Every structure is written in C-alpha cells, then in structure tokens.
Amino acid sequence: MKYLVKWHYPSAIAFSLIFVALHAKLANDFEQYAQQYGYKAAHLRELSHIASALNKKLDKSSYAFAVPSFLPISSQEIERFLASTQSTSDENTLEAVQKEWAAFRAAQPRESNVLTPESKMILARIRDHIEHAFKATPFSIDNPTRNASFLAFLADAQKRNLLLMIRSTGREDSTELANAGGNESVAAVLPTRETVSQAIATVIASYFGERSLTQRIIAQDTRLFDTPLIPVLLQVMIGESASVTAATKSIPASGVIFSQEAQAGTPGVVQIQSSWGHNEGVVNGIVAIDTFYIGASRIIHP
C-alpha cells in the first residue's frame, strides 16, 4: 500500500506528522491483524485511522479524506464455514481442501517455474470443493456478533442502494509480495446474502487459481507452500448504485493518484490518471484516460 504523503495543501506538514505517529502506533498489531484479515484489509484499517485523524485537522468545507466502508472476513471465519459444509466426498469441505493442498505440495516441484499438469488438476479440484460449499449453503459467520455485523453491513448497503466490491485480501499487498491481479475481486455485487456468498466463493477459489500460484512462483514467494490465508474483504463501491436509472443519470469519475510520476520518477510532481466510470478501467489500462500533473506551484497541467 502506498500513501500520498506529499500533498500540496497547507496541511501537508500536519498530514505527514499524523501519518508517522499513527503508522508507528498501528504497526504494533498490524501483522497480527493481517494474519487474520489479510494485508489489504490491514492497510485499509491503517488508512482509515490516518484519514480520520487528518480530517480533524482539516477544513471539511474544502476537502476531506475518506475510505469507503468495508467489512473484512477473517481466514479463520472462512475456514470454520467450510468445516461446517459437506464436500462432494464424505468429509467436510475444509478437510477436503486441506487434503488436496497436501497433494499439491507433494506434486509441485519446488525448483519448477511452472505449474505441472498434475498440480493444475489438484488446484481445479480445490476450487470445485469451495464453489460447491458456497452453492449449497449461503455464507454466514459462526460468531453471532460477527454474523450480525455481516448482515447489518449488507442491510445498510441495501438501504442506501449501493453496490459492493468483494475483494481478495490474502498475503498479497505485503512488503514481500504484491501478486497484483493474481487473485479475483468481484465488482458490482448486489448486497444480498446469496449474491455476496457466490462472490466470496469466487474470491476464495481464486487463491487456488493457476494465475495466482503462477505469479507467486515467478515472484519466488517463499511462503508458496504454506497453508494459504483465505480472508475476504467486502467494500462499498464509490459512486456506484444498484439502481440502473440512478447510475445512468450520474456516471462517476474515478482515478489513481501517484505521489510521483509512475515512469519518470519525479519526486514532488503528483500524477493523477482519471476516466469516467468504475476505476477498474483505469487500473487495468482498458479505457482512455486523462492524465494531470501537479507540482509545487499547485498549477494543474493536463
């Protein structure tokens, strides 16, 4: 996760001081939180604290920092759900996945830079087990308090007519491994238990996908054969509505901000890339974008 720590407003010094102080405070339990909810969720949690502290220092009538509402579901909660469901064999789904993962570890050579045909077959069986579990039983959390939070998050999104993004948040986005695009995230999900359950299944299955494992092999991930983290992140989509009529009346604009030019490496020059619609098009380079540059003079150069 990269933070925009050089912001050309009078509050730049305040932002930097708040960032450093809170980053140090949250770092103490960052790794513990990430081992439960994944690194993406841990970074969002940290960023939410920083944004909240910064907004107290700002004139909110001019601008403010915000992180879209999100709800992380831990790897342990997913595992307990899988353990409560029946696989296509005589064991529960978690046992079936664990058995197949042991078979994958035995079949995949440590020195190989590609997945073997046998490894691909094993990974496909793991994905089938996961998808079968969620198809047979809509997702729920075994802890009553946490499950109430999960259902309340969906109910609030329904009430506000919002769509959700169901995101991957495993060992990706760590300092050792980015795995960008390796795992799936499902966009524009209606906030119902059934649709969210199917999206969660897609994300979890992608942790065992050929693309994810291949990228990790290429990146020489030292934890490739460890028991996978399988948390999921539910997050509100900004500017997106579940209503077709509302969406067509107000098409959102989205973009990416870099603290320096992506290619040139120019500290002090903020680069903004934006376009109409959902940010997926900008991130993956599949739509035409507008690019703007802002230097110390605060003049915007298109």
Assembly type of the chains comes to single chain
Low-confidence spans: pLDDT under 50, at least 5 residues? 1-13
* Envelope shape: globular
Helical proportion, percent range: 40-55%
Please state roughly what percent of the residues sit in beta strands, choosing from under 5%, 5-15%, 15-25%, 25-35%, 35-45% or over 45%: 5-15%
Total number of strands: 8
The pLDDT mean sits at 83
Radius of gyration equals 21 Å
- Enumerate the strands of the largest sheet in spatial order, edge to edge or round the barrel: 1-4-2-3
Separation of termini? Answer: 26 Å
Total DSSP helices: 10
Q: How would a textbook summarize the main sheet?
A: 4 strands, antiparallel
Series of secondary-structure elements, N-terminal to C-terminal: HHEHHHHEEHHEHEEHEE
Output the keywords.
alpha+beta; single chain; globular; 8 strands
How does this model look, in words?
This protein is α+β, with helices and mostly antiparallel strands and 302 residues long. Helix content is 45%, strand content 15%. Strands 1-4-2-3 form a four-stranded antiparallel beta sheet. Strand 7 (290-294) and strand 8 form a beta hairpin. Helix 4 packs antiparallel against helix 5 (117-136). 29% of the residues are buried. Residues 1-13 have low confidence and may be disordered.
Quick structural overview:
The chain has helices spanning 12-37, 39-55, 75-83, 93-107, 117-136, 144-159, 193-206, 210-218, 244-249, 280-283, and strands spanning 70-73, 162-168, 186-189, 232-241, 253-258, 270-276, 290-294, 300-301. By secondary structure, the chain is of the alpha+beta class.
